[in-house]
Amino acid sequence: MLNAYISGVGAYVPPRVVTNQALADEYGIDTTDEWIIQRTGIRERRFADAGVYTSDVAVPACEAAIENAGLRKQDIDLIIFATLSPDFHFPGSGVYLQKKLGLTEGENARFVPCLDIRNQCSGFVYGLGTAASMVRSGQHKHVLLVGAEIHSHAIDLTTRGRTVSTLFGDGAGAVVVSATDEDRGVRGWDLGADGRFANNLCLKIWDMSQKPYFRVNERDEGEIPVDMLWPYMEGKVVFRHAVQRMVETLMQSCMKHDLTKDDIDLFFFHQANLRINEYIANMIGLPPEKVPSNIERYGNTTAATIPLLLEEAVRTGKLERGMKIALVAFGSGFTWGSAIVDW
Ligand code: UT7
């Protein structure tokens, strides 16, 4: 039987470190290091400079993942790009990534299909299910899946937006999902969504019901009401549902594969809030060493959190071939998902 396994991982974060204290000192946000650490566990995050696109941070992560898989870029036969901060309204960021990877140039140009996934914090897990399905069907051999975000250009870095803007950071993580005849890889996944909560965590910068969808002023410039400019989040509602759905989807995945928590070596949880993950780990009874975390250094990078964490675990020797791992995510939509992988 054809299986799909993760053959390579890569990651990239912009070099500029922004500490909690810098949010107060440099951006003038009425916040404290203590408040942010206590509520979220975040100590610092990375911010990209002006002029950097989401596809730009994706490139080094993808190149590293392809190299880590022992492949050449030309071996990739499908690109899947998960993000909530695409370069533009359209087209999707996958095609920009394809070009920036150099796949459209020269004799060996590869005009591979590019697919964008719009599932926010669950984007990577949704993308993994999609990539694994494509591989298992025999249609694709090496799928490049990247989760990448530039949040810092599109959050309200003032006191008004502090509940959201102190949480998010920029970065990218990528994997290659490859075909194998060996008995290992992505075993399965469980995905879910509840559209009743679509407006509890959203960014409505464009509203297609309006005609025209941006008002145009006498200087021919589009005008956007400030309350539509920035992401909106009802933190407590999100927190409550995140805990419930992440536990449920993890249980579903375990049941589908006849596993108990003790059969799983490492749990890679979406990094939205250390307190959410500690709460879940406590509820299920997971020892902290089985639940890697890096939110303290990167904040919430939405679609990039899980691949960033995977890359770090591989690089530091924590995640080794032969281990059984679970990936679990929850985010805007609300959407959620989990996957079981034999690494
Ligand atoms: O990736 C998935 C999406 N996101 C999540 O999973 C996030 C889930 N939610 C959370 O993590 C938490 O709800 C937050 C960390 C966002 C907020 O924590 P909270 O305990 O729910 O705080 P709150 O929003 O109820 O705010 C409590 C107080 C408020 O002040 P008042 O009204 O009590 O005077 C806020 O204005 O804390 C204030 N506050 C802040 N103070 C300092 C909110 N943000 C900040 C801040 N610094 N950054």
List the helices and strands and how they pair.
Layout: E1 3-12, E2 17-19, H1 20-25, H2 33-40, E3 44-46, H3 54-68, E4 78-82, H4 93-100, E5 114-117, H5 123-136, E6 142-149, H6 162-165, E7 171-180, E8 185-193, E9 201-202, E10 215-216, E11 222-223, H7 226-229, E12 232-233, H8 235-256, E13 266-269, H9 274-284, H10 295-298, H11 305-315, E14 324-331, E15 335-342
Parallel strand pairs: 4-5, 4-6, 13-14
Antiparallel strand pairs: 1-7, 2-3, 6-7, 8-15, 9-12, 10-11, 14-15
Helix pairs in contact: 3-4, 8-9
Oxa(dethia)-CoA (UT7) is lined by residues 31, 35-36, 39-40, 121, 162-163, 166, 201, 235-236, 238-239, 242, 272-273, 276, 300, 302, 331.
Describe the model.
Helix content is 31%, strand content 23%. Helix 3 crosses helix 4 and helix 8 crosses helix 9 (274-284). It contains eleven helices and 15 strands. The protein has 343 residues and is an alpha+beta fold. It is globular, with a radius of gyration of 20 Å. The strands form five sheets. The chain has a five-stranded mixed β-sheet, sandwiched between helices. It has a four-stranded mixed β-sheet with strand order 8-15-14-13, sandwiched between helices. It folds into two domains: 3-183, Thiolase/Chalcone synthase (Peroxisomal Thiolase, Chain A, domain 1, 3-Layer(aba) Sandwich), CATH 3.40.47.10; 186-199 and 231-342, 3-Layer(aba) Sandwich (Peroxisomal Thiolase, Chain A, domain 1), CATH 3.40.47. The chain has helices spanning 20-25, 33-40, 54-68, 93-100, 123-136, 162-165, 226-229, 235-256, 274-284, 295-298, 305-315; strands spanning 3-12, 17-19, 44-46, 78-82, 114-117, 142-149, 171-180, 185-193, 201-202, 215-216, 222-223, 232-233, 266-269, 324-331, 335-342. It binds oxa(dethia)-CoA. The site of oxa(dethia)-CoA has 21 residues, from helix 2, helix 6 and helix 8.
